[in-house]
Specification:
It is a single chain. It is built from 6 helices and 7 strands, in the order ααβαβαββαβαββ. It is α/β, with parallel strands linked by helices. It has 2 domains: about 15-60; about 65-230, 3-Layer(aba) Sandwich (Rossmann fold). It has a 7-stranded mixed β-sheet with strand order 3-2-1-4-5-7-6, sandwiched between helices. Helix 1 packs antiparallel against helix 2. It is elongated.
Length: about 230
């Protein structure tokens, strides 16, 4: 896919921390190597770990997740799609380019994504040549009528709700607004199995959970992203 917009970095403090860790470990490797020889392999191992994690994280946030979402989104065109925690519009503009009516909901916290602001999202939509609708709101209390949405998507957002009860409420709200025959797609690197259990309990069908592979690693296989997909029976 080609990108004409800038979607920033997810969790921007993380790649900064990884870069600092790699630099400090590399400096320690040089210092220790000059004084104590082979002991330098210990900080070198840390430098390689932080360096690999940094490359993986930057690739995922700037490229990999877009490739994965290209495969996840199967739209006929014309569907009303709500993106929970849309951020700067990485998934939202993809929905719009596929012909969906794209509606993004977010609280616009920059700690979750660099430069997270509705003006940036609108600018990205304009750069991609698509129209989107943005709503400032809490995914635990969505401003949509019951059964009024065709597809609900969310990418790395629901885990930002700090408590299980709050996350359960967000999942329940997502299920509530889906019409009969609607579909839910949630990608996250935490709590995915819990989301699946909640959706089964809410009566959704075809609940499946799978790993999204190396393109969605936020630093390495220890920070894998999974997806849960569910349907509302027609």
């Amino acid at each position: 896919m080609s990108q004409r917009a800038d979607y920033g970095f997810d969790a921007p403090a993380v790649p900064v921390g990884l870069a600092v860790g790699a630099a400090v470990s590399l400096a320690a490797t040089v210092v220790i190597g000059l004084r104590w020889g082979w002991w330098a392999f210990i900080p070198l191992a840390y430098a390689l770990f932080f360096g690999f994690s940094l490359v993986s994280f930057v690739y995922t946030t700037r490229r990999g997740k877009f490739v994965v979402w290209e495969g996840l989104l199967q739209l006929d065109g014309g569907e009303r799609v709500v993106d929970l925690g849309c951020g700067r519009g990485a998934v939202l503009t993809l929905v719009a380019r596929r012909g969906g009516r794209a509606i993004g909901v977010d609280l616009w916290r920059s700690v979750d994504q660099s430069g997270n602001d509705p003006s940036r999202t609108r600018a990205n939509a304009a750069a991609e040549g698509v129209a989107v609708e943005l709503i400032t709101g809490d995914m635990r209390a969505l401003p949509f009528a019951t059964g009024s949405v065709d597809v609900v998507v969310s990418s790395l957002a629901i885990h930002n709700i700090p408590d299980h009860a709050g996350r359960a409420r967000a999942i329940a709200e997502a299920a509530r607004i889906l019409r009969p025959g609607g579909r839910l797609i949630i990608a996250d690197f935490r709590h995915v199995r819990a989301y699946g259990e909640l959706l089964v309990g809410l009566g959704l069908s075809g609940v499946t959970i799978r790993d999204l592979g190396w393109r969605f690693w936020y630093g390495g296989p220890w920070a894998r992203t999974g997806v849960v997909i569910a349907n509302v029976d027609a």
